[in-house]
Amino acid sequence: MAERTTEQRIADLEARVAALEEGAAAERAEDPEETVDDTFAVLREFKRSAGEGGGVVYAGSLPSEGNDGTLDWQYGLPLERIDGADWSRLAPSIDALGNPVRLSILHQLWNSTSTVAELADLPGFGTTGQIYHHINQLMSAGWLTTTRRGHYTVPPERVVPLLVILTAAGGPL
Questions:
Q1: Would you put residue 35 in left (φ > 0), alpha (ψ -120 to 50) or beta?
Q2: Is 6 helix (H, G, I), strand (E, B) or coil?
Q3: What contacts 54, CB < 8 A, 6 or more positions away?
Q4: Nearest CA to 119 among 153, 79, 95, 86?
């Protein structure tokens, strides 16, 4: 078998790339909703994988000090699993978010504040005893964790779910 020339190998590669591009263009033509700037790309991909039973998915990508500068997170469940679950067991987690002071504490801790003393210096948070009461509620529900003694933060795995709940509760904020 004769060795192929560089020109022949390049021509073969160009033909293969052209075939791949044609295939991708054909797939886009089959799905007229798909565009380069697609608002529903996550939803469409979830629908492909969820099957006929449907389900729920949420995702987020946020700037973060860890994880190479971003916090990427996604979660999805089929409808049958959501429908078959005991919703009442979620009450403590939802209840912890149902207090304006607790939401303000979460907001402050997510932004920059990390200690009860810093929160006590801000207006509207009450006494340190009241703040600790709210902190304990948020910690027992999993919305806060300690980074070191006396310092609190929203755990990375709870940031996107928290933002999803806030967005769902208020629509466009």
A1: beta
A2: helix
A3: 78, 79
A4: 153
Q: Which residue has the tokens 């979830």?
A: 46
| pLDDT reported for residue 39 | 79
pLDDT for the residue 67: 58
What residue ranges in the chain does DSSP mark as E strands? 55-63, 70-78, 145-148, 151-153
3-state secondary structure of 125: coil
Q: Which two tokens stand for residue 29?
A: 């033509």
pTM of the model: 0.69
Q: Which residues of the chain have pLDDT under 70?
A: 1-2, 24-37, 66-67, 171-173
The number of CA neighbours under 13 Å toward the Cβ of 161 is 14
